[in-house]
Amino acid sequence: QVQLVESGGGLVQAGGSLRLSCSTSGLTFSNYAMGWFRQAPGKEREFVAAISRSGVPLYYADSVKGRFTITRDNAKNTVYLQMNSLQSEDTAVYYCAARSRVGVTAAQAMDSANHDYWGQGTQVTVSS
Fold first, then answer.
1. What per-residue confidence (pLDDT) applies to 109?
2. Taking 90 as the threshold, does the pLDDT of residue 102 lie above it?
3. Which pLDDT score, from 0 to 100, does residue 49 have?
4. If 0-12 CB within 10 Å is exposed, 13-18 middle and 19+ buried, where does residue 80 land?
5. Which of 78, 88, 95, 90 minimizes the C-alpha distance to 37?
6. For every residue of the chain, which 3-state class applies, written as one string?
């Protein structure tokens, strides 16, 4: 049974930092590219960041470039999202997702429909 479990969310003041983790089990982690998505209240789920199977950061949403960093540890079957300089607009539920398909375009990598497995999400709230 495949499981993705996010942790590390919480309440933080604007300008602060959080580090999200996504621990996986039941899959060969190194065979999956990983992504982070988020969904704010009343909005659609949106792409945040993606990383290759080997750990090369692939893409970031323009809204988080320079502030967020995606990394992974294949030995620990875990992907991370370091979030700095948080803003109220970053408030959302953050989800990690696993994608087995490779050789995709940037648009396809950013598309939630191309991901095979999802976590349950972790809430990030940034107070201004």
1. 93
2. no
3. 98
4. buried
5. 95
6. CCEEEEECCEEEECCCCEEEEEEEECCCHHHCEEEEEEECCCCCCEEEEEECCCCCEEEECCCCCCCEEEEEECCCCEEEEEECCCCHHHCEEEEEEEECCCCCCHHHHCCHHHCCEECCCEEEEEEC
